[in-house]
């Protein structure tokens, strides 16, 4: 048989010419230069082995830039793995900061910094947090109480970041270094000593309680200065894109300075009140001054809590009894080295090593630790609870992360995933509904679906236990079968009666229907392992509800009206109201749990594969770049992430690997625009790690599909033993066979239980596609 790449290139040629794709002739296909997509080439023999320290390969600036829908929303500031505090620079342009480009507070090309805030999210497309702005400056004037009045240019050549550390030099000569423990941000500020600067009257650090990210409002605040203990404490309640949905997110803080104050004051609005100690309101702050004529350095340790100021003080005392910046940085770098060492790899270039470990780093940033040092946390019911024997996390972007991030954590960091499941169980029990998109102490209801069901089922299947699955299942079942007083699935009665949600019930009705069908598949699996046989049968039947959206006339999955008629006249290349962030072309494939059923309605396996070929051929000829959404394969958003692997669901590993590698090559890089778009809490980075390793998780099952690794060797340090993936054959070939622990795999897939105790997977690659051996 001819190489799979020639088949796909012939289809791409047809798509580019505007004609209908047709099966390729038997003669040799077109030269790669004549088509929209050329398969990768390169040195098959190159090997670059990653060696300790692994943190040197991480570039936190990857994903901090991009334009339009290609904005990665990463940030370069330091944090511990999944840490509560995320200190870092908040930047702006010459006029203002466009909110969508500053969801993390930072945009790589910005020329100005206007403060260093302590909270943010990683890789999201929603603007929130940015609490408690710290800013070192020379002198104090009313203008500096505003972001515009204190913004300052910085030297890009003097800006550096690595896991656990960030540093920058501002235009006025002030050097800022930042590190972090789990709950405390550490700052070391070095003031300039040239004539006319520094000294007792100019070296100043201000804390702005009214600071927040663009389009985020601070609705309440408090600041208190204690010159005796040289501390500042207080709180800020922010109301942002998501936190506004539950009344605002309070962040409490306690900051200790390394030296006594030479002067101090508070402000409200633009009014300074020197020597005063307290202010209340959303526009308040404080400043303190230091005599730096003989000692240029000032250290700050700033702890936060989501419970109250007393717990912020407790966190500060536990993690920063002194303001020892170097010790804190060393401990954080050690924590990152330990976390990164779970993955040992060999790549074919230094560039791939850097992309790989940066992707791994990005998967370990969010969700967010919300437990104080004594185990206290504020739950979604607004009450204070104690996490007994686990760490409580929040900021779950579940509609995104169920697809790749949580399966990755279950595989490589199961002890962390266990605590995340325990956190989600606590949220469900305490609030009476499964978490959907919890941010901080509140539920936002963001996106669609009942994604927690998939996370629980998938985690169980991948061996994460020691969780109260019965308690979680009880709430998940209630959400799937009843209208809960608050939270839970939307339009449950309609979905149960009709098997779908009608267009008249509101936006994203089609996406909700497809997501609920997948959720029901997950619930059937959970019910079965929990011994709820009748429930399992009922949910298994409901998992076929996606079929109610199949329009045999148009041959698409489309939205459906309450009277049973299908939407008509809609362009499948355009976003529709009944889809969540996507086109009909995106969602027609969204049946990840029932590929054989989808093949059945499309006319059989060969028909589905041929249509997938057409889809990807057209996808290669879309407008290049990431600025705008794409009508066909659009890797910048979640609904299509599994589509290259849909081939693998039908045992065609060759074409699965062809298009998965195409996405790797075209969507990821090693620059500020090196992510496909929002990383969505590590979702896109986890996709890279799975795909580059040559495996991909089947949702809510214990299985992994096999593809073609771009990394010639990967070793995952699993609790039960090392799991190593290697290849033989041409590096840019397609998979045709594989052995696991020396035994041939009859299909291009394997189960988690086969590798739980470690093992060796060898994938055989060939220059020509052929039936799986």
TrEMBL record:
One Gene Ontology MF term: carbohydrate binding
GO biological process, alphabetically ordered: carbohydrate metabolic process; glycoprotein catabolic process
PROSITE patterns: PROKAR_LIPOPROTEIN (PS51257)
Ranges for domain Glycosyl hydrolase family 92 N-terminal: 57-305
Residue stretches making up the Glycosyl hydrolase family domain: 312-766
UniProt-listed Gene3D superfamilies: 2.70.98.10, alpha-1,2-mannosidase, alpha-1,2-mannosidases domains, GH92 mannosidase domain
Name of one Pfam family that matches: Glyco_hydro_92N
Disordered: region residues: 17-43
Source domain of life: Bacteria
One GO cellular component term noted in the UniProt record for this chain: cytosol
Biased composition (Pro residues): 21-31
Cross-referenced PANTHER family: PEPTIDE N-GLYCANASE PNGASE -RELATED, SECRETED PROTEIN
Annotated protein name in UniProt: Alpha-1,2-mannosidase
Origin species: Chondromyces apiculatus DSM 436
């Amino acid at each position: 048989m001819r190489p799979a790449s020639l088949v796909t290139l012939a289809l791409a040629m047809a798509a580019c010419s505007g004609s209908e794709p047709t099966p390729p002739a038997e003669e040799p296909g077109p030269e790669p230069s004549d088509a929209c997509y050329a398969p990768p080439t390169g040195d098959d023999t190159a090997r670059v082995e990653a060696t300790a320290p692994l943190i040197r390969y991480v570039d936190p600036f990857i994903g901090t830039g991009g334009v339009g829908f290609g904005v990665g929303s990463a940030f370069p500031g330091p944090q511990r793995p999944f840490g509560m505090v995320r200190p870092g620079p908040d930047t702006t342009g010459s006029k203002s900061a466009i909110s969508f480009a500053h969801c993390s507070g930072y945009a790589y090309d910005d020329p100005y910094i206007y403060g260093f805030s302590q909270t943010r999210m990683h890789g999201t497309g929603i603007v929130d947090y940015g609490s408690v702005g710290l800013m070192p400056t020379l002198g104090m004037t009313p203008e500096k109480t505003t972001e515009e009045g204190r913004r300052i240019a910085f030297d890009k050549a003097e800006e550096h970041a690595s896991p656990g550390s960030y540093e920058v030099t501002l235009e006025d000569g002030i050097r800022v270094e930042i590190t972090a423990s789990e709950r405390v941000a550490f700052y070391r500020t070095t003031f300039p000593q040239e004539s006319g600067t520094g000294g007792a009257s100019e070296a100043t650090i201000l804390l702005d309680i009214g600071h927040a990210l663009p389009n985020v409002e601070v609705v309440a605040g408090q600041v208190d200065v204690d010159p005796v203990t040289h501390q500042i404490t207080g709180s800020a309640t922010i109301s942002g894109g998501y936190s506004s949905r539950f009344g605002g997110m309070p962040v409490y803080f306690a900051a200790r300075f390394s030296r006594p104050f030479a002067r101090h004051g508070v402000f409200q609005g633009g009014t300074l009140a020197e020597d005063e100690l307290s202010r209340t309101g959303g526009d308040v702050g404080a400043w303190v001054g230091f005599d730096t004529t003989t000692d240029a350095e000032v250290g700050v340790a700033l702890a936060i809590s989501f419970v109250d100021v007393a717990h912020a003080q407790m966190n500060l005392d536990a993690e920063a009894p002194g303001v020892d910046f170097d010790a804190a940085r060393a401990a954080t770098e050690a924590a990152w080295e330990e976390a990164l060492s779970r993955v040992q790899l060999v790549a074919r270039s230094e560039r791939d090593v850097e992309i790989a470990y940066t992707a791994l780093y990005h998967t370990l940033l969010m969700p967010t630790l919300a437990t104080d040092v004594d185990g206290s946390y504020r739950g979604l019911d607004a009450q204070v609870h104690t996490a007994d024997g686990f760490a409580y996390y929040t900021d779950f972007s579940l509609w995104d992360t169920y697809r790749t991030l949580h399966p990755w954590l279950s595989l490589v960091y199961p002890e962390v995933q266990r605590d995340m499941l325990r956190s989600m169980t606590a949220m469900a029990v305490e609030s009476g509904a499964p978490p959907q998109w919890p941010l901080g102490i509140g539920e936002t209801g963001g996106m669609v679906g009942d994604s927690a069901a998939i996370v629980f089922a998938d985690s169980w299947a991948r061996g994460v236990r020691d969780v109260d699955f019965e308690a979680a299942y009880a709430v998940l079942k209630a959400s799937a079968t009843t209208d809960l007083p608050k939270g839970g699935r939307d339009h449950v009665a309609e979905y149960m009666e009709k098997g779908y949600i009608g267009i008249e019930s509101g936006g994203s009705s089609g996406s909700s229907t497809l997501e609920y069908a997948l959720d029901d598949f997950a619930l059937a699996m959970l019910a079965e392992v929990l011994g709820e046989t009748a429930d399992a049968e009922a949910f298994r039947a409901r998992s076929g509800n996606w079929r109610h959206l199949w329009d045999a006339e148009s041959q698409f999955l489309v939205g459906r009206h309450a009277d049973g008629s299908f939407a008509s006249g809609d362009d499948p290349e355009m976003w529709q109201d009944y889809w969540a962030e996507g086109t009909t072309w995106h969602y027609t494939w969204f049946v990840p749990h029932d590929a054989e059923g989808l093949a059945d309605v499309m006319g059989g396996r060969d028909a589905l594969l041929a249509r997938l070929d057409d889809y990807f051929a057209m996808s290669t000829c879309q407008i290049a770049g990431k600025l705008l959404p794409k009508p066909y394969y659009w890797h910048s958003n979640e609904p299509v992430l599994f589509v290259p692997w849909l081939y693998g669901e039908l045992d065609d590993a060759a074409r699965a690997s062809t298009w998965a590698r195409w996405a790797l090559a075209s969507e990821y890089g090693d620059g500020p625009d090196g992510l496909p778009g929002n990383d969505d809490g590590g979702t896109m980075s986890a996709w890279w790690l799975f795909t580059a390793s040559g495996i991909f998780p089947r949702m809510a099952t214990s299985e992994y599909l096999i593809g073609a690794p771009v990394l010639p060797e990967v070793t995952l340090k699993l609790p039960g033993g090392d799991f190593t993936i290697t290849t033989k054959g041409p590096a840019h070939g397609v998979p045709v066979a594989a052995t696991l622990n020396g035994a041939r795999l009859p299909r291009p897939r394997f189960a988690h239980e086969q590798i739980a105790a470690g093992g060796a997977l060898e994938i055989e690659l060939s220059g020509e596609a052929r039936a799986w051996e």
